Amino acid sequence: MRNKLKQRENYPTLVLHSTDNSFGFGYRKNNTHESDELFIKEFNNDFCNNLVNDLNKFITRENLQKINKLSVSIGPANFNASRLVVVLARTISQQINCPLDSFSSFEIMAKRIASKNNIFTNKKSFWIYKKLKRKGFIAGKYEICHNKNKFSDLVIQEKVLPKVVKELESKELSFEANYDDKEDLKELLDLSNKNLLNSNVDSWRKVLPLYPISPIN
Predict the structure, then answer these.
(1) Which residue, of 2, 72, 132, 181, has the fewest CB within 10 Å?
(2) Could you report the per-residue pLDDT of 136-145, keeping only the tens digit for each?
(3) In this structure, is residue 212 part of a structural domain?
(4) Helix (H) and strand (E) counts in the chain
């Protein structure tokens, strides 16, 4: 069993990610950062039609068929982008019979935010938030799982999935969401590789975009 898991860790990984203003793909060929390939592009007026074309330019059909790990960010981010990127990930997962897992955009940036603010203490928790145009916030809660003093060793658990809150608790640590296309794609590749994917090829059915608010808010 251990040999099988070790072999599985070396399979190629594909991730799809979107932010408020851009989207991207990440491909890791052999479980090493040196093999990473990234694609980042800002939204344009024809994002819907170009999304599949951009993916086809990024990864060959041969390499796509070899993918064994597939992950996608589900938001909170641009409403239409989250929906389209998740639909694309679900479609790929179904077509190549590859399990699909997902992470919120806040969970992907949590490690970077913790490191920037020197949060390395075990069980220390903090919130990541995004202020809404009207009233309230979208906020998720995150906790350090291990007492580490290096960024690369940090393990963070999402305790509260991003949701709408009227106000932030002043007694708790909170930091504003900060998207970083390149770093978030790399972290999503890391999370995908560390996460033991469900072997059920129908796992794509459970992956849905995260919509804390309506698209018109």
Answers:
(1) 2
(2) 999 999 999 8
(3) no
(4) 6, 9
